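User: Could you walk me through two proteins back to back? I'd like the raw sequence and the structure tokens for each, with a short line separating them so I can tell where one ends and the next begins.

Assistant: Of course. Protein one, sequence then structure:
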Amino acid sequence: MTLPRGARLAVDVGAVRVGVAASDPDGLIATPVETLARDTSARRTDLAALVTEVTERQVAVVYVGLPMHLSGKEGAASAAARAYAAELAALVSPVEVRLVDERMSTVSAHQALHAAGRAGRKHRSVVDQVAAVVILQSALDHERSRGARAGELVA
């Protein structure tokens, strides 16, 4: 099965920041886009910015990282990510929003930044973007190997 062409977007949702990454229309490679400030006010500027990205890039699917414990169980951060993904899905419909396991994405992001010679104290400004890249690249690899979208569809 061949998946429809279109860029993919990945979102790493944190309590303070939201990392964003995108792919090319063929879903070959994930690249960092930006780090948004998490806006819990009624304005929800972070969600508005994501809707703009989805529209401008003609995104086919949005992957939202689902933080899980190493045991595979979900906790409070998982519930927050699920709620965020549901809000986003309502705003970008009919574009699919899917939750993907993001265990170790932030750890991998810190390791990649350290390997690139970036000082630990300077990671904060970009680690969420890099984590989003890790999430998206994992989803793209899944798509290529299985011929199907990764993760759980948000209803």
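----
Protein two, same layout:
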Amino acid sequence: MSRLTTQAPTVLRAGGPNAVGVMLGLLGDEWTLLILREALLGARRFVDWRARLPISNAVLTARLNRLAGAGLLDRHAYQDRPPRWEYRLTERGAGVWPVLLCIWAWEAAWVPEHVERLPVRVHAACGQAFDPVLVCAACEQPVTAAPDQLTGGFGPSGGWARSVPDASTRRRSAGGDAGLFPQTTALMGNRWSAALLGAAFLGVHRFAEFQRCLAAPPTVVADRIRRFCELGVLRERDYRLTAKGRAFLPVVLTAVDWAQRWFHAEEGPALEHVHTACGASFSPALSCSACAGRLCRVDVRVRTDTVTMLDPASRSRR
């Protein structure tokens, strides 16, 4: 297996956006998610992404530069005249795989309108098609969005204002032909949407409560609630999460876990939870729905007309 670049976490400035806000600014963008997906499947050069995605040169250049600046990709020159660059996944970039896997599974289960059929996930350890199951890393027991599963909430660097991406952060859906994560982007790709989703998972379900948490104009809150109801994520009668909305929990928790591993606020974590069943500080992990074994990146295969893996370097071991 190729060795990933070893990195230290980024220390965030005191009082600024916390790990959750930084994460949403990076991953709340469909182009970024698609670029990382292709990087996990072996893309390294500009031409690789251009061949696989309907993305313009300008947008791809901007996203690659941003991911390199955030430490998710390492830029290496492979040609001098003219200069050409490879963008290799770092340890931080490869660590996004659980988030992408949970998004993939949620979109496949709950979103019928995809421009192309999502491939089947296969667990190499057991050879079976599977869904990722969210479990507690301490006790291996499944964790759901039921209110008695996790206790806790905002930590020392938490709070609504610090947990949303900076207003100047530009994110957009790939849209059009690329819409492989269309509803995920609707939930995470707008600063108000992300805040509303977080509030809903913390039990908020009244308009006035949403407005207080988001500190947004009433028209913005009403628009976001309306959109979430259209998507079937909130119930229209009381604005509580639906089964579809609750099923998005693995995406949220794996994304927060990745963020807090790699972006440290001086004051402490943005979110802190305890798994009620075992009493341990909650850290998410994923298990295979077919064999209950713990999932790791090198054992997740994609079954299409050809077989690829989320870690291309591990193909030599097949």
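Residues 305-309, 312-318 have pLDDT under 50 and may be disordered.

Let me know if you want the two compared in more detail.
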